[in-house]
Amino acid sequence: MADDPEEGMLSWDESVFRDEHVFEIDYVPEAFRHRESQMETLKYALRPAVRGSRPLNVVVRGPPGTGKTTAIQKVFAELDHQPGVRAVRVNCQVDSTRYAVFSRIFEELFEYEPPSSGISFKKLFGQVADSLVDNEEVLVVALDDVNYLFYEGEASDTLYSLLRAHEAHPGTKIGVIVVSSDLDLDVIDDLDGRVQSVFRPEEAYFPVYDVTEIADILQDRIDAGLQDGAVPTTVTDRVAELTAETGDLRVGIDLLRRAGLNAERRASRTVERQDVEDAFDDAKHVHLSRNLRALTDTERTLVKVVAEHGDERAGDVYDAFHERTDLGYTRYTEIVNKLDTLGIIEAEYEQLEGRGRSRRLRLAHDEDAVRDHL
Question: What is the pTM for the complete model shown?
Answer without folding.
Answer: 0.85
